[in-house]
Amino acid sequence: MTTRSKLHTQIDRLNESLIDICNTVKEAIELATAAFINKDIELAHQVLEIEREINQKEKDIESLCFKLLLQQQPVARDFRFISATLKMITDMERIGDQASDIAEICIELANEPYIKPNLDQVSQMAEAAIKMVQDSISAVINHDKTLARAVIKYDQVVDDLFESMKDELFALILADVQNGRQALDLLMIAKYYERIGDHAVNIAEWALYSITGTKKPEKKKKPAPVGNGEVK
């Protein structure tokens, strides 16, 4: 096997590892959400276990990336992909931390009735966050600039849901100050979903970097003025 063939084989392995950690992160978010909505302590504890799996997978991927950089000396796109992966797995690990944080709050609130009877916003935030994480990794694996840009734009959906839930929780506090402590816990859960969306945006930006060499979406160039300054 040539050096180049060996590099491509290991790049394929790195792709598979990214898909694997993405699926594990997705599972953590889904279980944390189910634990919260259903007051399921057992599911919450599963999330804490999965978070440890994510930490180990991050270390394994990091080790593979350093091995590729040191032993294969990749150039151009391969180099950008490997270096971007090192950044992306940090975001993946933090998403795992936030799913774990949601699970810990679920355990604390397990014996209390929720002050907010309608939890649709939580489900919607979770679904949006999962979509962003999945799509950002798909953008990396498939070198899809359009999908990466779509993830960045879609973050507004999560932000709007967060603002809506925040307003509702503040109204509950104003209605009865006794709601304050739990309202803050629920606000933290909403904030964790909002942060998961932010991390997915980071991953999408690193996807753009691995494809184009720049993290930000390309801006359309304005036509250059000609003649007397008129734009044609």
How would you characterize the overall build of this protein?
The chain contains six helices and no strands. By secondary structure, the protein is mainly α. It has a single domain, classed as Methane Monooxygenase Hydroxylase, Chain G, domain 1. The longest helix is centred in the first third of the chain and has 36 residues. It is elongated and about 70 Å long. The model has no long low-confidence stretch (mean pLDDT 89).
Summarize the SSE layout with pairings:
Layout: H1 3-38, H2 41-71, H3 76-109, H4 120-141, H5 145-175, H6 180-212
Q: Could you give me the name of the CATH homologous superfamily?
A: Phosphate transport system protein phou homolog 2, domain 2
Uncertain stretches:
none
The overall average pLDDT, rounded, is 89
Structure summary, number of beta strands:
0
Biggest beta-sheet profile: none
What is the domain total for the residues? 1
CATH classification, class level: Mainly Alpha
CATH architecture assignment name: Up-down Bundle
The percentage of residues in β strands lies in: under 5%
What is the CA-atom radius of gyration, in angstroms?
A: 21 Å
Oligomer: single chain
List keywords for this structure.
mainly alpha; Methane Monooxygenase Hydroxylase, Chain G, domain 1; 6 helices; single chain; 232 residues
Question: Can you describe this structure in just a few lines?
Answer:
The chain is an all-alpha fold and 232 residues long.
